[in-house]
């Protein structure tokens, strides 16, 4: 038969295990929140990069069109 001291020790051990479980659960939840924040930041950066590429591509097309117009003007001027 278990003594009162044995039962109190078991209860204390169970309470400690429960506290450890809660600490682990809190750490996992904090890690999940951190992961979500990083995911959101990464998505924002990816969006900015895509916009930057689109702007750069538009500028390159504009420069290429201008260069083609200059080339056409030079060819017409030399043909005269």
Description:
This protein has 80 residues and is mostly helical. It has one helix at 4-79. The chain contains one helix and no strands. 0% of the residues are buried.
β content, as a range? under 5%
Number of strands: 0
**Helical residue percent?**
over 70%
| Overall radius of gyration | 34 Å
Distance between the termini: 117 Å
**What is the number of helices?**
1
**What is the ordering of alpha helices and beta strands?**
H
On the 0 to 100 scale, the average pLDDT is 91
Could you list the spans in which at least 5 consecutive residues all have pLDDT below 50? none
Q: Let me know the largest β-sheet.
A: none
Oligomer: single chain
Given helix and strand content, the structural type is: mainly alpha
The global form is rod-shaped
Keywords:
1 helix; rod-shaped; 80 residues
Helix and strand topology:
Blueprint: H1 4-79
Put the structure in a nutshell.
The chain is mostly helical and 80 residues long. The chain is 95% helix and 0% strand. It starts with a helix and ends with a helix.
């Amino acid at each position: 038969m278990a003594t009162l001291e044995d039962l109190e020790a078991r209860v204390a051990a169970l309470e400690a295990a429960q506290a450890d479980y809660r600490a682990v659960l809190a750490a996992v939840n904090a890690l999940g929140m951190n992961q979500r924040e990083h995911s959101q930041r990464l998505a924002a950066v990816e969006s900015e990069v895509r916009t930057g590429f689109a702007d750069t591509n538009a500028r390159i097309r504009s420069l290429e069109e201008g260069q083609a117009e200059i080339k056409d003007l030079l060819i017409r001027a030399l043909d005269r």
